[in-house]
Write a structure and sequence with these properties.
By secondary structure, this protein is α+β, with helices and mostly antiparallel strands. Helices cover 15% and strands 46% of the residues. Strands 1, 2, 3 and 4 form a 4-stranded antiparallel sheet that branches. The two termini are 21 Å apart.
Length: 71
C-alpha cells in the first residue's frame, strides 16, 4: 500500500542501468514498490539473476510523490 499523507502518495521506482556496447546504455524498469523496504528486497532478489549479478551497482530506487486529484 502506498503511503497517504493528506492525499499525497509515495511510491518507489526500481530500475537497473548498465553500460552495454560501446556508448550504449541499457536501462530496465523492474517495478514500482509501495515502500522503500520492498524496493530494497527486490534489489536483493534481482542481484542474483543472470544479467544483473555482473552489475550489482546498477540498481537505482527513485522516490516519487504525487498528489491525488480530488473528485
Amino acid at each position: 500500500r502506498t503511503k497517504n499523507i493528506e492525499n499525497n502518495f509515495i511510491v518507489y521506482i526500481l530500475t537497473h542501468t548498465r553500460k552495454a556496447e560501446k556508448n550504449l546504455i541499457e536501462r530496465k524498469y523492474i517495478g514500482i514498490c509501495s515502500t522503500l523496504e520492498k524496493a530494497e528486497e527486490k534489489v536483493q532478489e534481482y542481484v542474483k539473476y543472470e544479467g544483473f549479478e555482473r552489475f550489482p551497482n546498477g540498481f537505482k530506487i527513485k522516490k516519487i510523490s504525487y498528489r491525488r486529484k480530488k473528485r
